[in-house]
Amino acid sequence: MDNKLENIKILINEETLKNRIKELGEQITNDYKNEELIVICILKGSLYFTADLTKYIENDNLKIEFMRVSSYGDEFVSSGKINITKDLELDISNKNVLIIEDIIDTGNTLYYLKQVLSERTPKSLKIGTLLDKKSRREKNIIPDYCGFEIEDKFVIGYGLDYKDLYRNISYIGYVD
Question: Who contacts 31 (Cβ-Cβ below 8 Å, separation ≥6)?
């Protein structure tokens, strides 16, 4: 892949993204009415999704936290080894926690992360993802909130990257 956007095909356009994210925000608002909620943004990929999603969550008891988890060995293939490179600063014990991920692929990273966070005894622990690529699933991870189910394509944009590029594209795209 080179640095030319003209080779990128649109999978999910900006308006469709915005509308679905608003729907998810309203659903989460209803699910956590009057309850404290800690939203964990998994960096870097879910930054845009988390920022936009939380704008639509109407909750005065909302806190946003960040984690960075790494599992990639080379450009496309997971190494299988998962590292937490930035951990939470807040205590999540007895709190409602919502992990926000950009994409669920094999499920290995979220499976590991869910185990780690469960040991910290949250009141509830749920998963929200912008994209779900079920065809590649290796672990039994089912998101509680899902933006879009997609085919097995290498996607970029709206936080998703290729070699740390293309995150700032306002839509989800792919290259054949």
Answer: none
Q: How far is CA 95 from CA 37, 57, 68, 91, 165, in A?
A: 7, 17, 20, 8, 35
Interval 27-84: pLDDT, tens: 999 999 989 999 999 999 999 999 999 999 999 999 999 999 887 555 555 556 788 9
Nearest to 176 by CA among 9, 36, 54, 41: 9
Q: Measuring CA to CA, how many Å separate 74 from each of 77, 79, 152, 166? A: 6, 8, 18, 17
How far the first Cα of the chain sits from its last, in Å, is 10
- The fold of 15-150 is Rossmann fold (3.40.50)
Q: What is the residue extent of each domain of the chain?
A: 15-150
Residue 86's closest CA among 103, 71, 98, 69? 69
SS3 of 79, please?
strand
d(CA 138, CA 129): 17
Q: Which residues are catalytic?
A: 105
Question: How far from the centroid of its chain's Cα atoms is residue 139's Cα?
Answer: 16
- Cα 15 to Cα 20, 24, 58, 90, 149, distances in angstroms: 9, 14, 21, 34, 17
